[in-house]
Amino acid sequence: MYSKVEQAFIVNFYYNQDELYLAEDDLKECEMLAMTAGVQIIMKENIHLRNIDSAYFITRGKLEIIKYKVKDHKINVLIVNKELKPVQVRNLEEYLKVKVIGRTELILDIFAQHARTSEAKIQVELAQLRYLLPRLTGYGILLSRLGGGIGTRGPGETKLEYDRRHILRRISTLQKKLKDIEKHHQVISKNRTMKVVTLVGYTNAGKTTLFNALTHENLKTGNSLFVTLDPTIRKVSLDNEQNFILLSDTVGFIKELPHSLVASFKATLSEVKNSDLVLHVIDIQDRNIEAKIKTVEEVIAELGLEVRHSVIVFNKIDKMKDQGKITRFTNLYPESVFVSAREKINIDNLKKIILIKAGKNNGL
Ligand SMILES: Nc1nc2c(ncn2[C@@H]2O[C@H](COP(=O)(O)OP(=O)(O)OP(=O)(O)O)[C@@H](O)[C@H]2O)c(=O)[nH]1
Ligand SMILES: [Mg+2]
Fold this sequence. Notes:
The protein has twelve helices and twelve strands. With 364 residues, it is α/β, with parallel strands linked by helices. The protein has two domains: 115 residues, Rossmann fold (3-Layer(aba) Sandwich); 166 residues, 3-Layer(aba) Sandwich (Rossmann fold). Strand 11, helix 11 and strand 12 form a beta-alpha-beta unit. Helix 1 packs parallel to helix 4, helix 4 packs antiparallel against helix 5 and helix 7 runs parallel beside helix 9. The longest helix has 27 residues. The site of magnesium ion has 4 residues, from helix 8.
């Protein structure tokens, strides 16, 4: 029904003129998500909506314009950077005659493509199926979904099943597997005497790069979203003495992280549930840092991670031309540290702060 390469039109919406600059960031983020998912972006647009149409989400006049553009530019997938109701997806697909993908489905698709370990695969498949189940009757151009591409991919090379009974059976099998994994992680964390330091933060903030700088590891990093899915834990000495800590890298967070994913990821994150110190990594170049901090704090709460102590780590200061921003953030967040994980600036100072905040350790 459509060619192999998915040619996408990305749309984001804003409701008030003064929200436009935030909407621009949201559109950029969605573009990054779409690129990570592997589609070809043909067009992107921020559209002003006065109200939301309950049947189509997009109001008639705007929809008409989108329809022309879809036709003119041979678009075969419309990516909507909002959470759509199943009925809205069906109506949009019927009207536009192309596949329509909402933000949640896009994120789930990336997770499905990036899942490598068996644990991650279980978590992601479970999240996808939980998302899919209430929507089974919602899809319009079902045929296009059976054809492949975003919204049909499961972890690995598998394709999502759309049969209700099969899905229910599979969910229960996966839930059981996840319970076992969780138990296993809990046993490990109970028998641990070392302090646990966990890196958290918005996706692409530089957590893994910082993890590598602190541990001399070489974990995969990259300028795309959700490069890391599985938590990695390493024993490291930060002062060249016998004071070992356990440092953990984790999955990145994002605004409106699908709830089904959050629920799934609780299992592997249970190992870092009781961290002695959380390092909240932030890309200092981001325009809307306060909103991102809030997002990360919300996801931490949703995951039930206990935060005993936390330190904000502003990363990528090598890119920072505006010294004023650093001064401003030092005043706003007095307990913060400024580093460049890639250029290894101020890493030794961060190590000292980690040791003080986590509390020096005794034992292995
Ligand atoms: N200029 C600059 N770039 C950096 C720095 N730290 C990380 N980066 C870049 O930022 C991008 C994201 O880095 P990662 O370490 O993969 O980020 P992450 O937070 O682990 O991201 P996810 O695992 O995808 O959530 C990569 O292209 C890094 O090279 C830094 O200090 N300065
Ligand atoms: Mg990472």
